[in-house]
Specification:
356 residues; Alpha-Beta Plaits; 4 domains; four-stranded parallel sheet; 16 strands; 26% helix
């Protein structure tokens, strides 16, 4: 886990760079980087740069909204692991005074920062209840009457489709707003002496590391979802709960599709005489990039999910001259480049004969 913050303090949110779409994938001309975490941050503490996510510790309140919005699970907010570690069934906002909290409840900075991963883990053990005290609409962090709505709706749908006996719900238990504590705050700036300020600005700044080659982003949140759904269903994940990709033309560009996929959900497996394009729906974020390579993406599958499946097989042969692998159109024995070289050589030979 890497600290994504800049400056003297340590951010309350950590970035796992191998799972970040912005860090792992360079942005093509005309495209936009993933900004879900920055868009969800109520304190505007996150800045997205070229293959970089910066979190300002002096502005971060630790509300967890960025972690809940991240599609791959690249961000982790401190304090939200309590729900998984303690096995608590009820969850309270930190603004609720200790004497007003439900017995045995886990306390988080903001109910809107609860990730689906944390809620699913708790759901496997029993019912989960979010205590709605009626303060969220006026909270500068929550900025909504029900900031947990999207997470709960998805969890309830998953429990119904898998036949899981437990569920998650928000329970209205209003309290007098006068009893509400302060919302999550950014840490107070540290006082520095004159010597400290001089040392701070005189300190040599480390050189920025060279960007790593583009790679598929890890997907810890999606892997955790797959495992939780299997546990909830007691076997294969039922149909309709995972994305599906199919061929949309006679000759889709499988290699191009695999290179476009940001999470490695589409992977090209090379074989002897045939290449296979394998699709793992559990790693798919339904971005739609593969459609540019001749594939069609469906939001819901028509078959149960049991693991990766082959969606295309591409016959390949080795060029008789250069020994490079290529995809023949009919019965070619030489690749297009060698055929082009032959044409150029024949043209040059013909020109020389005419000149003679």
């Amino acid at each position: 886990m890497e600290d994504a913050g800049q400056g003297e303090g340590r951010a309350r949110v950590q970035l796992h760079a191998p799972a970040c779409l912005t860090v792992q994938r360079p942005v093509l001309v005309g495209d936009q980087p993933c900004t879900r975490c920055a868009d969800a941050c109520p304190s505007r503490a996150i800045r997205i740069g070229p293959r970089r996510v910066e979190i300002a510790p002096a502005s971060c309140t630790g509300c967890g909204h960025c972690a809940a919005a991240c599609p791959t699970g690249a961000l982790t907010a401190q304090g939200f692991e309590l729900l998984q570690r303690t096995g608590a069934r009820a969850v309270e906002c930190s603004r609720v005074a200790p004497q007003d909290r439900a017995a045995g409840a886990a306390v988080v900075a903001c109910l809107g920062g609860l990730t689906r991963t944390a809620l699913r883990s708790a759901l496997l053990e029993g019912d989960v209840v979010l205590m709605d005290r009626g303060w969220c609409a006026d909270c500068p962090v929550a900025e909504s009457t029900a900031p947990w709505a999207a997470e709960l709706d998805e969890l309830q749908d998953e429990a119904a489709r898998t036949g899981h006996p437990h569920g998650a719900a928000a329970v209205a238990a209003p309290l007098d707003p006068a009893r509400a504590g302060p919302p999550p705050q950014a840490p107070a700036p540290e006082a520095r002496s004159r010597r400290g300020w001089v040392a701070h600005f005189a300190r040599a700044q480390p050189a920025a590391p060279a960007p790593a080659p583009p790679a598929a982003a890890e997907t810890p949140a999606l892997t955790a979802r797959r495992d939780a759904l299997r546990a909830m269903a007691g076997g294969d994940v039922p149909a309709g709960m995972m994305p599906q990709v199919t061929r949309d033309c006679a000759r889709p560009d499988a290699g191009f599709a695999a290179r476009l996929c940001p999470t490695g959900a589409l992977a090209l497996v090379r074989g002897d005489g045939v290449d296979r394009l394998v699709f793992d729906a559990a790693r798919c974020i339904a971005c739609g990039d593969c459609e540019a390579a001749g594939f069609a993406l469906r939001a819901e599958s028509t078959q149960p999910y049991a693991g990766p499946v082959t969606v295309a097989e591409i016959p390949v042969v080795r060029c008789a001259r250069c020994r490079m692998r290529f995809r023949p159109d009919t019965v070619e024995t030489t690749c297009a480049q060698c055929a082009k070289d032959d044409d150029i050589a024949a043209l040059a030979h013909g020109l020389m004969r005419r000149r003679g």
